[in-house]
Amino acid sequence: MARVALLCGTGMGKIADSFQDSCLNYEKIRIDSPWGQVSCDLLQLGIGELLIIDRHHSDGDKRTPPHKIEHRANIHAASSFTPDVIISVNSVGTMVEHLPPGDIGIASDVLDLAIKPWTFHDDDATHVDRTMIFNNNFSEICKKSLKSSQGQAIDGLVVAQCIGPQFESPSEIDALVRLGADVVGMTLGPESRLIAEKKIPHVALSCSSNWAAGRTPGDRKAEIDHHSVDAMASTLRDRIKDCIEELMRNI
Questions:
Q1: Is 3.40.50.1580 the CATH classification of the domain at 2-249?
Q2: Fewer CB within 10 Å: C terminus or N terminus of the chain?
Q3: pTM (two decimals)
């Protein structure tokens, strides 16, 4: 039976509800890690098991900001589930016209120049290959699903990693474009590094939630509002659900 771990955040807070018609059992669990407990939703579906981790989880009503996320705890929890694949769903700002807000694309690479290192190996140097960060076969399955649900599926995206919590400036976005990035987010870089160390197949779905700073067609001064970003991302939950179910049926 398929086992999938899902890492998600902005706009995906209620994604478990999308599976209510096919969910046989649902429970909230906590997984211990050396970096703290991780709150998870565990869903038993007819086609497999799904572990959902909100990367911004916290003990209270507040949301952990992106620069304070303990990614090692999240990836430790996901890997302890022994999944067939880990899916990262990331809200991103788009710099390319062929992935407008409201569409989901598929990542093929990460441009992560952040200063902070992320690793499970602080005591003994361990160097992990990242030539092919994301699993091609599973990415193709998601591409097929997205073609069906949204009419097109933009793949091959290069996701730039910025640390937040502020959105980027137009000059920063211009620089990232010159470096080859297509979209920008605040969480995929650390996740991709740590999952590579765990050697678990990884797929990253980029939810285009807003135009990056200075990239709004016809209005380079258009401001970015997080509430609008969250609202846009939330409209994409059903398409993410379709991708997950398609993956489960093909594992």
A1: yes
A2: N
A3: 0.96
